[in-house]
């Protein structure tokens, strides 16, 4: 049919069908939009609305409409409501009007609703389609008809004409009036014609047959932005045209083209890939438009962690040596910088040419040129040590502030990490007063060394005119440096002495209190003869008893034995409760190195009678002076099988451990507590058997026994001769031996009541052994020891995510799935403390808790976790585990107050159900939280930390009689 007037012509059949389809689709949207249904129906409505809108999008594009990748939902809906303008509307062989009712609008979710898990509609800006998702991002919760909107006329847009009406005679498929039938070749970005590829169309300008060619659809291929480590990216193209109609041509510069056959590998740089569908038959098909896909990369944002094993350090931690303290700690590697996201850095960039670690010690920016650089790395990088030795603190400062960063040296691909800062403090050690020993009218000064906290190089300064040497910033203001020997003191003179830190280390120590000796109390001047047994001005030996020490290098027969050295009242004579077997303080005794003269001699160390002297503590090659790991209880050591003991030598010959430190020590209160065997010198030296046949009358005995060059034993032992342990007493192969015991007026071999761990009942003289009658020692005792804490068995949400699985335990506990790559999970880290001089009812520091309040997904958190405190009392002689539980509370963050929104730990059982027996009396351990850092707060049973903060809190304990 031919129309007489283009302005009044009727719809063609195709036009009518298309109009009916669009009207049906629009009607479906309206009907669903106005219905009020249940939530299930609303979800169904959303699915149907999305399907209808996607149909409208397809018809819009099929009838000349264009959609840009940058458009958002509102812009897409607005364009679907437009109509073709007059210039193109008269030539479109399809729909010219709107694809969507102008009153349709999108109702967006709120930010709170976005994370609810409810379905929402999202727009795929690359593939030009709507889809339904439950992702935690903000979308359209429904499409609705806004009846308040007036039906105004639709805006006009120019549309691309693919199937055009004849401009002359009105026949739909008559293209004879087209100005050109030249093949619509694609153009490159610079405007030049792109090559024809291998297409076989004529492209000659000959008239096209009736009906004309159709333009091909461009290839489908999605660009995007990817993490750098994902490169090279595989980029694929899909031909959306009928089979045999075309091939895909690709180019990376828009000029040089090649036929696409395999996926393209895009390297780590911004890459543009141009493509078009090239017609095989130009008489049927016109080349498609050029599609441009951009493949870009995300720069790597470096992330580091900065951690130190402690928040404060004492002199020995960082390499300072103590008198008699063995090997000091090292300050070289107390801190670590950790690369948190190594998986985001491609291996080709994992080296010091692309980024490096830098840090400062004064809080200044580590990005500057004055920062210290870490050790170069290549290939892999996990941690970087950060030294904090004495020299970095100066001679007056009490803190240093370490600032660290991973600095990018390749800004194209890598961003520097945020700067991390930690402030460290000095744990100042209080120097002990000098010991004044009086010899008639003369005085000798000595240092207290048995506690391993007196530094090598400590200075004693004194005056004899009664003037305090003073203390200004750790230095004396007057006086004479003591260099040893005896000081003559006249009756009218007054000696005042103080102990000072080694020169240059004043900020690590607190000067001792003064010691004062009046000359008129000495009973004579400097001309008096030296007394045989000096009077001890202070008492740092055992309370209620005297420590006796013997050494020997040969095996004794029962009843006929002897020793090669004995010192009576060793503790009182030298003001100590510790015996250093490399530096015995009396020449009558033998150092171990005196009897083992060949440094290549191999030997093992064994202990006998540990169950009698349970308060003994052994020190072997202590790693750090004063550290809790520097000693173990003798019973613990004696429980190690002979074959599992290390092989030592004094020279460290190959295959052995060099023995450099060997000590046995006791708590001062070990005698009234029954922690050391009471016996007599005669019974020990003659090797009179103990009550059950024990070696040397039950005295605590340590022996060095010979080992062959191949590691096999060159000794034999007899377990029956030892009270406790599995190692026994040497019956051959002895190299050296030492015994320690409590001197008593009655020998242990007599059948008197005495129970290890309870007050002694074998002493005739109560002043020697404190009480003599046994029984309850009361609550006057003091304990020392160390604590450690372990998390275990977390419970919580359905999708709980923690680092502890099954029966795993750790002092570090992490829980929750972090919300994004820029947030962190929650964690807690417990560090135990050393304690000393703690009595029953005293509150003492068990350790500190680091707590991170992170941002995590709902449903992934822990709500409770078990926590056990392991405590070694009496220096390791008594050990016990106390069990507790923490409740973990994540607040909803809706109060508007940092205090109200803070997450927190809660102790659900402050009092442990476990008890420990000490000296025959049961005690329990009660817990409480103490002070916190300024980004948190605490109550007795709760520890709070503000949102997205890391803070620290103290955990305190109290020993309570049960």
First-last Cα distance: 109 Å
Oligomer: single chain
Identify the overall geometry. elongated
Instruction: Please state the CA-atom Rg, rounded to the nearest Å.
Output: 44 Å
Summarize the biggest pleated sheet. Answer: 8 strands, antiparallel
Descriptive report:
With 962 residues, this protein is mainly beta. The chain has ten helices and 63 strands. The strands form 18 sheets. Strands 50, 51, 54, 56, 57, 58, 61 and 62 form an eight-stranded antiparallel beta sheet that branches. Strands 36, 37, 39, 45, 46 and 49 form a six-stranded mixed beta sheet that branches. Strands 52-53-55-63-60-59 form a six-stranded antiparallel beta sheet, with no helix packed on it. A hairpin with a 4-residue loop joins strand 3 and strand 4 (129-133). The radius of gyration is 44 Å and the shape is elongated.
Brief overview, please?
This protein has 962 residues and is mainly beta.
Provide the descriptors you would attach to this structure in a database record.
962 residues; 63 strands; single chain; mainly beta; 8-stranded antiparallel beta sheet
């Amino acid at each position: 049919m031919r129309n007489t007037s283009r302005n009044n012509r009727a719809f063609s059949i195709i036009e009518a069908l298309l109009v009916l389809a669009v009207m049906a689709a629009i009607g479906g949207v309206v009907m669903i939009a106005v219905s009020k249904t249940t939530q299930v129906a609303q979800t169904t409505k959303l699915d149907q609305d999305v399907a209808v809108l996607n149909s409208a999008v397809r018809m819009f594009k099929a009838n000349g409409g264009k959609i840009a990748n940058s458009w958002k939902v509102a812009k897409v809906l607005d364009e679907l409501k437009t109509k073709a303008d007059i210039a193109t509307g008269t030539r479109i062989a399809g729909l010219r009007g709107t694809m969507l009712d102008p009153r349709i609008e999108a109702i967006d979710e709120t930010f709170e609703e976005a994370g609810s898990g409810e379905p929402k509609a999202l727009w795929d800006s690359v593939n030009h389609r709507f889809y339904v998702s439950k992702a935690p991002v903000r979308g359209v919760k429904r499409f609705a008809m806004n009846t308040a909107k007036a039906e105004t006329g639709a805006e006009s847009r120019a549309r691309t004409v693919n199937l055009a009406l004849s401009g002359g005679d009105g026949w739909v498929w008559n293209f004879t009036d087209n100005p050109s039938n030249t093949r619509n070749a694609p153009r490159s970005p610079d405007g030049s014609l792109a090559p024809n590829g291998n297409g076989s169309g004529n492209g000659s300008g000959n008239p096209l047959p009736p009906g004309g060619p159709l333009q091909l659809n461009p290839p489908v291929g999605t660009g995007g932005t990817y993490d750098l480590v994902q490169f090279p990216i595989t980029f694929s193209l899909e031909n959306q045209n009928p089979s045999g109609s075309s091939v895909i041509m690709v180019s990376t510069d828009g000029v040089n083209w090649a036929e696409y056959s395999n996926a393209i590998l895009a390297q780590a740089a911004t890459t543009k890939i141009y493509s078009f569908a090239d017609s095989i038959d130009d008489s049927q098909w016109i080349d498609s438009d050029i599609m441009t896909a951009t493949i870009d990369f995300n720069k790597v944002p470096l992330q580091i962690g900065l951690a130190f094993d402690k928040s404060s350090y004492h002199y020995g931690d960082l390499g300072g040596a103590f008198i008699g303290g063995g090997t000091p700690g090292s300050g070289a590697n107390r801190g670590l910088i950790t690369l948190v996201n190594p998986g985001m850095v491609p291996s080709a960039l994992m080296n010091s040419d692309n980024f490096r670690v830098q840090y400062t010690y004064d809080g200044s920016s580590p990005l500057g040129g004055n920062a210290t650089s870490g050790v170069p790395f290549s290939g892999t990088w996990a941690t970087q040590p950060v030294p904090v030795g004495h020299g970095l603190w100066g001679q007056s400062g009490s803190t240093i502030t370490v600032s660290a960063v991973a600095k990018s040296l390749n800004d194209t691909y890598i961003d520097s990490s945020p700067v991390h800062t930690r402030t460290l403090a000095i744990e100042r050690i209080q120097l002990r007063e000098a010991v004044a020993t009086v010899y008639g009218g003369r005085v000798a000064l000595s240092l207290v060394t048995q506690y391993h906290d007196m530094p090598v190089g400590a200075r004693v300064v004194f005056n004899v005119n009664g003037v305090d040497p003073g203390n200004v910033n750790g230095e004396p203001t007057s006086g004479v440096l003591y260099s040893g020997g005896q000081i003559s003191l006249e009756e009218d003179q007054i000696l005042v002495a103080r102990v000072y830190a080694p020169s240059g280390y004043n900020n690590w120590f607190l000067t001792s209190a003064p010691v004062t000796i009046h000359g008129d109390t000495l009973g004579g001047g400097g001309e008096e003869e030296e007394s045989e047994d000096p009077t001890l001005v202070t008492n740092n030996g055992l309370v209620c008893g005297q420590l006796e020490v013997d050494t020997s290098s040969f095996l004794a027969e029962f009843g006929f034995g002897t020793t090669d050295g004995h010192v009576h009242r060793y503790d009182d004579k030298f003001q100590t409760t510790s015996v250093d077997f490399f530096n015995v303080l009396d020449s009558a005794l033998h150092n171990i190195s005196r009897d083992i003269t060949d440094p290549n001699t191999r030997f093992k160390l064994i202990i006998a009678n540990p169950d009698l002297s349970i308060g003994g503590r052994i020190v072997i090659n202590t790693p750090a002076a004063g550290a809790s790991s520097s000693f173990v209880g003798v019973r613990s050591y004696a429980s190690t099988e002979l074959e599992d003991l290390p092989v030592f030598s004094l020279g460290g010959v190959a295959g052995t451990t060099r023995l450099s430190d060997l000590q046995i020590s006791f708590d001062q209160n070990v005698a009234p507590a029954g922690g050391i065997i009471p016996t007599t010198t005669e019974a020990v030296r003659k090797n009179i058997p103990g009550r059950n046949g024990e070696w040397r009358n039950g005295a605590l005995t340590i022996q060095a026994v010979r080992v062959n060059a191949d590691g096999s034993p060159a000794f034999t032992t007899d377990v029956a001769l030892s009270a406790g342990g599995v190692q026994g007493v040497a019956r051959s192969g002895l190299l050296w031996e030492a015994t320690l015991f409590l001197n008593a007026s009655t020998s242990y071999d007599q059948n008197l009541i005495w129970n290890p761990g309870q007050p002694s009942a074998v002493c005739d003289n109560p002043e020697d052994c404190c009480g003599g009658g046994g029984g309850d020692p009361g609550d006057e005792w003091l304990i020392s020891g160390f604590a450690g804490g372990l998390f275990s068995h977390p419970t919580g949400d359905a999708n709980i995510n923690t680092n502890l699985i099954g029966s795993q335990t750790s002092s570090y506990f992490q829980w929750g799935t972090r919300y994004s790559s820029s947030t962190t999970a929650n964690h807690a880290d417990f560090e135990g403390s050393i304690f000393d001089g703690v009595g029953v009812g005293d509150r003492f520091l068990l350790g500190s808790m680091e707590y991170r309040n992170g941002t995590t997904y709902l449903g992934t958190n822990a709500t409770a976790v078990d926590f056990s405190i392991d405590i070694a009392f009496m220096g390791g002689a008594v050990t016990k585990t106390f069990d507790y539980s923490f409740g973990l509370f994540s607040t909803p963050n809706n109060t508007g107050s940092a205090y109200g929104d803070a997450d927190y730990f809660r102790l659900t059982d402050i009092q442990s159900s476990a008890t420990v027996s000490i000296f025959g009396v049961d005690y329990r351990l009660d817990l409480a939280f103490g002070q916190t850092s300024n980004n948190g707060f605490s109550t007795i049973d709760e520890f709070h930390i503000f949102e997205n903060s890391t803070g620290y809190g103290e955990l305190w304990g109290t020993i309570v009689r049960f």
